[in-house]
Specification:
Purple Acid Phosphatase, chain A, domain 2, single chain, alpha+beta, eight-stranded mixed beta sheet
């Protein structure tokens, strides 16, 4: 056994030793299922905050027109990395003229030594427009969006890079990133940050500052990014409830410059740490004529081609010994559709001897005991859950509900030691505020007409077993809900070896408290108990 095979075992030993010295026991999923626990909202905290203004230092443009800004990384394969950025000035007004992407080159220079860039790669550029043919509404056209795929990289290696157009002497400062390890049962990313429903409020700022302190090597962003659709096209002030504030809007408007502000807000992190995104309902952003998701589709590079999905709405990638599947809740998920066919093929091709861990993520949770979005995506669960269970997905991350909830292992609403651990982390801090009501609270059970999804059908059902049998809502916290709390925050996943992973949920209010967090547990795989079956 070489050192690379020994280090995960050593890390696990250090974890347990440290906690024993500290007198603290970290539970494992082997001790579950756990008795349901609820931590009520702390009334000393605010339920939410307003969005940061566009002239806030973290949102304002800091470079001249032709220089790169909003620089972001995304994984493609273990030996390739996407670099994306924007040049030029976006336009907003009654009439807008798109910029010509061919006027600026998409170039990246990179190497393994600071200041020395022997490698060079060109990419592609595009622009998009968000058009509203309604009286009084403003149109938008973006700056030039650049995507360059760096190839031939060495795994587990630090690279330095600059991006821009050398012919215009418009090149960024030097940035740095580290590639992830090759698929292996003994090699894993250091820390994976998981966050959803982030937005651009002061709470979002605390979330990102806290996340940066935790030094992740990769970010999973599980939908609902900047909340540009909480605004009218004129900008002004965003609203926590769009339909309440703007009942006469002819369409769900957006203020697209919020996307540019979000790109600048995230750049200090995403220019050095790859961020993998999936769409949420706030990315739909409809235009007249049926065009949706335009900003999401054009601004973010994802490994759709490398994973064979050919769609930005769903894809997969490897991160050392972890295979991550990102699924689309707002495109066809029926078992007769393209996404399901791709998912089944992707799962069939898995080699769990190389990637023992199987993690899935999508925006809208299947298991959720909050009143908000209760059973909203029951149709998607009914279409896809059995396939994910068959291939023994270990962990599922979702957002959408603006609170935290970790489930006991569950399948088809039944406690099951071979079911995934479902975790909701839609508590990034957005303008819509934190969710505090539970479906089992007196008078808080939604009606069958509530929580209508923005995509897909309605499959609400009554509980078939247990204390809530025959009812739409439980009369107490469901047995599959292990822990729930209404606080803003983010999560960190640290995979230690092929069977142990440490999950920690960090609450925003704990940012200045050393070794403090809202939830922590070792998630333990049991492949000998839960063998994969292949009957579908």
């Amino acid at each position: 056994m070489d050192n690379s095979e020994l280090w995960p075992t050593l890390i696990l030993f250090v974890y347990f030793s440290h906690m024993m010295v500290a007198g603290k026991h970290i539970p494992t999923t082997l001790e579950g299922p756990f008795k349901p626990v609820t931590h009520r909202f702390d009334p000393s905290l605010r339920k939410g905050s307003d969005d940061l203004p566009m002239n806030h230092p973290r949102l304002a443009k800091k470079v001249t027109s032709i220089f790169p800004e909003q620089i972001a990384l995304a994984l493609s394969t273990p030996t390739s990395m996407w670099v994306s950025w924007i040049t030029g000035d976006a336009q907003i007004g009654p009439k807008v003229t798109p910029l010509d992407p061919s006027t600026v080159a998409s170039e990246v220079w990179f190497g393994k030594k600071s200041g020395h860039y022997p490698f060079f790669q060109r990419g592609v550029a595009t622009v998009y427009s968000q058009l509203y043919p309604f009286e009084g509404l403003l149109n938008y056209t973006s700056g030039i969006i650049h995507h360059v795929k760096l190839q031939g990289l060495e795994p587990d290696t630090r690279y330095y890079y600059k991006c821009g157009d050398s012919s215009l002497s418009a090149v960024s400062d030097e940035h740095v990133f580290e590639t992830l390890p090759l698929p292996s049962p003994s090699r894993y990313p250091g820390r994976i940050a998981v966050v959803g429903d982030l937005g651009l409020t002061s709470n979002s700022t605390t979330t990102i500052d806290h996340l940066i302190e935790n030094d992740p090597s990769m970010i999973l962003m599980v939908g609902d990014l900047c909340y540009a659709n909480q605004y009218l096209t004129t900008g002004d002030k965003g609203a926590p409830c769009y339909s309440c504030t703007f009942p006469d809007a002819p369409i769900r408007e957006t203020y697209q410059p919020r996307w540019d502000g979000w790109g600048r807000f995230m750049e200090p992190l995403t220019s050095r740490v790859p961020m993998m995104v999936i769409e949420g309902n706030h990315e739909i952003e409809p235009q007249a004529g049926g065009t949706n998701f335009k900003s999401y589709m054009e601004r973010f590079a994802v490994p759709s081609d490398d994973s064979g999905s050919n769609s930005s709405f769903y894809y997969s990638f490897n991160a050392g010994g972890i295979h991550v599947i990102m699924l689309g809740a707002y495109v066809d998920y029926n078992n007769t559709g393209a996404q399901y066919a791709w998912l089944r093929k992707d799962l069939r091709q898995l080699d769990r001897s190389l990637t023992p861990w199987l993690v899935a993520a999508w925006h809208s949770p299947w298991y959720n005991s909050y009143s908000s979005h209760y059973q909203e995506f029951e149709c998607m669960r009914q279409e896809m859950e059995s396939l994910l269970y068959q291939y023994k997905v270990d962990i599922v991350f979702s957002g959408h509900v603006h609170a935290y909830e970790r489930m006991n292992r569950v399948y088809n609403y039944t406690l099951d030691p071979c079911g995934p651990v479902y975790i909701t982390v839609g508590d990034g801090g957005n303008i819509e505020k934190v969710d505090t009501d539970h479906a089992d609270d007196p008078g808080k059970c939604p009606s069958n007409g509530d929580n209508i999804p923005e995509f897909g059908g309605i499959c609400h059902l009554n509980i078939s077993s247990g204390p809530g049998r025959g009812k739409f809502c439980w009369d107490k916290q469901p047995e599959w809900s292990a822990l729930r709390e209404s606080s803003f925050g983010h999560g960190i996943l640290e995979v230690v070896n092929s069977t142990y992973a440490l999950w920690t949920w960090h609450r925003n209010q704990d940012i200045y408290k050393e070794n403090s967090h809202g939830d922590q547990i070792f998630i333990v795989r049991q492949p000998e108990l839960c063998a994969t079956t292949f009957n579908q």
